[in-house]
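haha ok so turns out i had the wrong file open the whole time. this is the CORRECT one, sorry everyone. sequence first:
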Amino acid sequence: MDEAKKTNSIRGEEFINRFLSGRTIDIGCGPDLVTPHAIPFDKEQGDAQSILNYFEPASFDCVHSSHCLEHMQNVESALCNWWALVKPGGYLVVVVPDEDLYEQGFWPSIFNIDHKATFNLGKRESWSPVSYDIEALIKALPGAEILEARLQNDGYDRHLLRRSAMSRFLGRWSSRRQRSFDQLSRIGLPTYRINLWSHRLETVLGKPIDQTLGAAVAQIQVVAQKHGSH
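then structure:
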């Protein structure tokens, strides 16, 4: 979905030159590297949960990760390991989906069934049973100074957020349907046409919309600098 390209268009050249110009690793990048010189690290390269099995501590000027942390089995452990890769004076740049704009009150996620956590920015309470305040998590890392923590919702239409009883029912139904179809597909049964028809019907009736499939973003970006001895 070219998430890095969409996010870089929001960040601007000054941000890229300041934070992403040194030796950079892009964790969970897929085919869309945040900068051409970044070292890619995705499933083909190994397990991002255990990144220290592949790289020495303090070996990067910038550790960048966009839309990967929510897939980790242990969010706090993964963050600690990613932070260990950052040199003193270097940066950690993390982008995660905003739970209210992306998951929209549904758990498990109806848009990505592999999500294992949701994220907020400074909320006292959350509807999600697996919610993390991403700024607080990163601020608690040793030697971390938060340089930026902000919601990015460029192109997002809040009027399309739906909270009706029908919307909640369709969200739960969609999640169960997708998991059932995934299981049928794995054993070789054709489900494409039924799945497409169901999706169209749900959309007409008021199913929540994943606006990030288009130009919109619904995410939180946190930038931290590591202080400590060189």
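The beta strands are 24-27, 39-41, 60-66, 86-97, 118-120, 131-133, 144-152, 219-226.
again sry for the mixup
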